[in-house]
Amino acid sequence: MAFEPGKIYAVWLREVKRFTNSKARIVSSLGQPILFLVALGGGLSAMLPGFNYLAFILPGIMAMTVMFTSIFSGVSIIWDREFGFLKEMLAAPTSRETIVLGRILGGATTAVFQGTVMFILGMLFTGVPIPPLMGIIGIFVLMTIFSCYLVAAGIAIASVVQEVETFQLLMNFLVMPLFFLSSALFPINQMPSWLQDISGLNPVSYAVDGMRGMLIGTSTFTIAYDFGVSLAVLLVAFLAASYFFNKTSI
Fold first, then answer.
1. What is the pLDDT of residue 1?
2. What are phi and psi of 185, to 5 degrees?
3. Which of residues 36 and 133 earns the better pLDDT score?
4. How far apart are CA 185 and CA 180, in angstroms?
5. What is the chain's alpha carbon radius of gyration, rounded to the nearest angstrom?
6. Cβ neighbours of residue 45 under 8 Å, at least 6 residues apart?
7. What is the mean pLDDT of residues 53-71?
8. CA-to-CA distance for 245 and 148, rounded, in angstroms?
9. C-beta separation of 35 from 126 below 8 A
């Protein structure tokens, strides 16, 4: 694949502008994560004296914010197909991998922005001490990798699905199980053994675990392992997105 930064930037900019022009989408995508943090986190913290459950679930809530924004960004492919813009993009003198990369980076930019807002709000609400600079950088790097492979997964699915309604049903079917069957809300070592096995196969667990380790110093796996698994998932997701986008019909 030839690297075409100008064309990647054009696709990226379109995705970012589409997001920033929808103020309702920016606000509404934060509603559910804030509700989880305040209601679930606050309620369970009161039931677990001596354990800062709010600080524990903050990385999970950040991951939830990134998940919703990232994976649902794939719906833009269906809208572009519906209104004929996808046909124009595919007819442009550029590789489809360039289009996929631009869309992934655009979707990840908007998702990381939302995750950053949730990070700031969560720090203020939970009172978690500000981590060291390298920890903050690591959190945002891992958040970006996490977002990129979720956007890629959304692109792969949207390249196959033809209807917006079907895409939304599939995403709801995938997102919530991925979230609840990860380490976002509960420590892996406190789960039943069968649930630990499922959580260990869930890539979301490693993104959450890495961010938690860098934020509050508590993690099940090593930070290097969390990054390694996330990068491997990103590679697989990008290859899948490129393959299915190449096969998409218009």
1. 55
2. -110, -20
3. 133
4. 7
5. 18
6. 51, 52, 53, 54
7. 87
8. 16
9. no
C-alpha to C-alpha distance for 86 and 93, rounded to whole angstroms:
13
Q: What does pTM read for this prediction?
A: 0.89
How many CB atoms within 10 Å of residue 57? 26
Question: For residue 15, how many other CB atoms are within 10 A of its CB?
Answer: 21
Sequence-ordered list of residues with C-beta below 8 angstroms from that of 89, at least 6 positions apart, any chain: 11, 80, 99
pLDDT, one tens digit per residue, over 107-149 is 999 999 999 999 998 888 888 888 899 999 999 999 999 999 9
The highest-confidence range among 91-95, 198-202, 223-227, by mean pLDDT, is: 223-227
DSSP H or E run through 139: helix 133-160
The residues, any chain, with a CB within 8 Å of residue 226's CB and separated by 6 or more, are: 142, 206, 207, 209, 210, 213, 219
Rounded CA separation 28/161 (Å)? 25
Q: Given a cut of 70, is residue 25 above it in pLDDT?
A: no
Cα 207 from Cα 97, distance rounded (Å) = 25
Write the DSSP string, 18-58. HHHT-HHHHHHHHHHHHHIIIIIIHHHHHHSTTS-HHHHHH
Q: Which two tokens stand for residue 163?
A: 């209807």
- Amino acid identity, residue 83? F
